[in-house]
Amino acid sequence: MLHDFRRVDFSFWRTLVEDEQRARLEALRELLAGWAELETRGEGHSRVYAVLGHKADLLFLHFRKSFDALLDAQFALNRIPAGDLFPPAYGYYSVVELGSHTGDPSSDPKLMAELYPTPPKDGYVVFYPMSKKRSEDENWYWMPQEERARMMRSHGEIGRKYAGTILQVVGGSQGLDDWEWSVTLFADDPIAFKKIVYEMRFDEASARYGLFGPFFVGRALDETNLKNIFGI
């Protein structure tokens, strides 16, 4: 799973004549159509989001079955004529995983759907990286496995309360990126993100051991909304 955050270089955009602008948007449209075709073949998913705030402008979110396929998605955007409009802002690589305290996905269709999620095509998204505390006083990895399992069961009970309202996707990134996990939430109302994160702040696993990185919140874009960003 790749969270590819980009800025939009509007200064460069304004230097382009109308034909050049339209050519770049057409190249982007063709790229998005190619990603959609890839999805129909069962080879992955790609979504684009407008990001609120100043950490990034757009999120290109990719789910693929291999590292190399994610590389292809990343560089495909860079190669097209529109690629020079989207300098990198931030990126995060992780592998979708289930908690070690869950069951066997091969015998549980619900767990299999969590391991190979289909992100919604509309609505809102929030992404944030996180780690578990490793200090002299509070070290998650020194805890007995049974104690960690107990806390994660309690943690999971909160998440299950939001089933049907929030789709939760957790990625492991130990040895792959700067934090230990990525968390990506999807919902029809961004206020749902605030509610679940706030409630989990009081959960023992988060309150004692949770360390959190930056939060990025965005809204899904279709072709029309993407053009509206550029005033076309």
From TrEMBL:
Name of a matching Pfam family: Chlor_dismutase
Transmembrane segments: none
E.C. number: 1.3.98.5
Highest taxon of the lineage: Bacteria
Keywords, in A-Z order: Heme, Iron, Metal-binding
Keyword Heme: yes
Reactions it catalyzes: Fe-coproporphyrin III + 2 H2O2 + 2 H(+) = heme b + 2 CO2 + 4 H2O
Molecular function GO labels: heme binding; metal ion binding; oxidoreductase activity
Keyword Heme: yes
Gene3D superfamilies per UniProt: Apc35880, domain 1
Cofactor(s) listed: Fe-coproporphyrin III
Chain coiled-coil ranges: none
Pathway: Porphyrin-containing compound metabolism
The protein's name: Coproheme decarboxylase
